[in-house]
Design a protein that fits this description.
Oligomer: single chain
Helix content: 25-40%
Distance between the termini: 63 Å
Shape: globular
CATH topology of the largest domain: TIM Barrel
Number of strands: 21
Bound molecules: pyridoxal-5'-phosphate
CATH architecture of the largest domain: Alpha-Beta Barrel
Radius of gyration: 23 Å
Strand content: 15-25%
Number of domains: 2
Number of helices: 13
Length: 433
């Protein structure tokens, strides 16, 4: 006997979300006009699929929300670093926010100009910062010790940006909140006097102020409080060219989720920013660094059901993927919506969708899905951000292929790994020597 719950209001709602995220046309799910099951047949599963049009429309929506200001978007590429995604955003005018020298190099390979790349590392060696300076990217410094070394090395010859920590608590999850008082990120606003002394000692030229308070901004007022603290601090810095308000734009992962009201925040920020610029006496640039907002909804992890397993309490749908490919449900307790795209009109039943990893790896607990049969393809939504980029080879599984739909074509943008990738850097040590 299947456990079958009654069809509730909530489930009707989920269904409408399914349709919104992926169009259902003649009982076939499509992404940007392309049939998803055909894509699975062509490229196999598990598979990461991205909707390039959605990435562009998210980028454009953010740009629009701050009109008449021409904000600068520095896409936080740690969310999804595929070169094709980087190139797509570059073509639409985006810059890049990077957190490692390797991301800097990926950005350069994708064709970004160094001056369009911001490098915002935390706890990296000064050697790595020097390498980034050599590449010509904008350096964002987030601690006094590095700032002193930076000043000693470069004086006023290399301008930099300062990451301040306004200690605004944003976001519902301590793992991703970066603004609280004992966070390792940024230079505390309470240390500004010390910061100014170091700047003076080495004649350091600060051209930007930055904050990134956490990963989920639900409340425009919290965001604006942080912004106000940065505006207040700005009077201490006479060479500013830009203010960078980081990110934290939240998108809905399920119906009823509060997403960041981009248009509302846009209007309020524009007003205050223009007033601030008048007071400061110069029109500064306004920068943002969205990651999740740009790519989360564009992405789907497509998996095949290997086993439908009925236990005394639960029906499991066991799929050919798991926390090795999408760790967010296990690591952050994140909710990712799941749709059975092989059986759009089937009877709804309750399943726990689990992976094939030898550890509890639940992708979705107690989900209402249209009846899942072995072989059915399930789509896991909101898999564009922190999906592939956090994937590992745990259990010696290959990381999946990536495909992007753009211009009405589905194209492979990363091959699935093979055995050669698992053994590539392993060395057979010879103990007889
Ligand atoms: C991760 C990160 C971002 C992007 O955060 P999202 O929640 O994905 O938008 C922006 N700026 C910095 C410095 C980051 O570390």
């Amino acid at each position: 006997m299947y456990i079958c719950k009654t069809f509730t209001y909530v489930e009707v709602f989920f269904f409408s979300v399914n349709k919104f995220r992926m169009d259902l046309i003649n009982d076939r799910y499509v992404v940007a006009g392309q049939d998803v099951l055909s894509i699975c047949e062509e490229f196999g599963t598990p598979l990461y699929l991205y909707d390039g049009d959605k990435i562009v429309s998210q980028y454009n929506h953010l740009m629009e929300a701050f009109k008449p200001l021409e904000i600068k978007i520095k896409y936080a590429c740690k969310a999804l670093t595929n070169l094709n995604v980087l190139r797509l955003l570059k073509e639409h005018g985006s810059g890049l926010d990077t957190v490692s020298i390797q991301e800097v190099e990926l950005g350069l390979i994708a064709g970004f100009k160094p001056e369009d790349i911001l490098y915002t590392p935390n706890c990296v060696s000064f050697d790595e910062i020097k390498r980034a300076v050599d590449k010509g990217v904008v350096i964002n410094i987030d601690n006094i010790s590095i700032l002193e070394q930076f000043g000693h090395e470069y004086g006023d010859s290399v301008p930099c940006c300062i990451r301040l920590n306004p200690h605004i608590m944003a976001g519902g999850n301590l793992h991703i909140s970066t603004g609280h008082i004992d966070s390792k990120f940024g230079i505390s606003i309470y240390q500004i006097p010390l910061l100014l002394r170091v700047m003076q000692t080495y004649n350091i030229k600060v051209v930007g102020l930055h904050m990134h308070t956490g990963s989920d901004i639900l409340d425009a007022e919290v965001f604006l409080r942080g912004a106000d603290l940065l505006f207040d601090a700005a009077s201490n810095f006479k060479d500013l060219e830009f203010m960078d308000f980081g990110s934290g734009f939240k998108v809905a992962y399920r119906e009823g989720d509060i997403a960041t009201d981009i248009d509302g925040i846009g209007k309020k920020i524009v007003d205050r920013f223009q007033t601030f610029c008048t007071e400061y006496g110069k029109d500064l640039e306004l920068w943002f660094e969205p990651g999740k907002y740009i790519v989360s909804e564009s992405g789907y992890l497509l998996v095949k059901t290997n086993v439908v397993k009925q236990t005394v309490s639960t029906v499991f749908a066991g799929v050919d993927s798991g926390q090795n490919h999408l760790i967010r449900p296990m690591m952050y307790d994140a909710y990712h919506q799941i749709t059975n795209i092989s059986n759009p009109t089937g009877t709804r039943r309750i399943y726990s969708v689990v992976g094939y990893i030898c550890e509890t790896d639940t992708l979705g607990y107690d989900r209402s899905l249209s009846e899942v049969r072995e072989g059915d393809i399930l789509a896991i939504h909101n898999a564009g951000a922190y999906g592939f980029s956090m994937a590992t080879n745990y259990n010696s599984r290959f990381r999946p292929a990536e495909v992007m739909v753009y211009n009405n074509k589905a194209k492979l943008i990363r091959k699935k790994e093979g055995m050669e990738d698992l053994v590539r850097n392993q060395v057979m040590a010879d103990w007889s020597e």
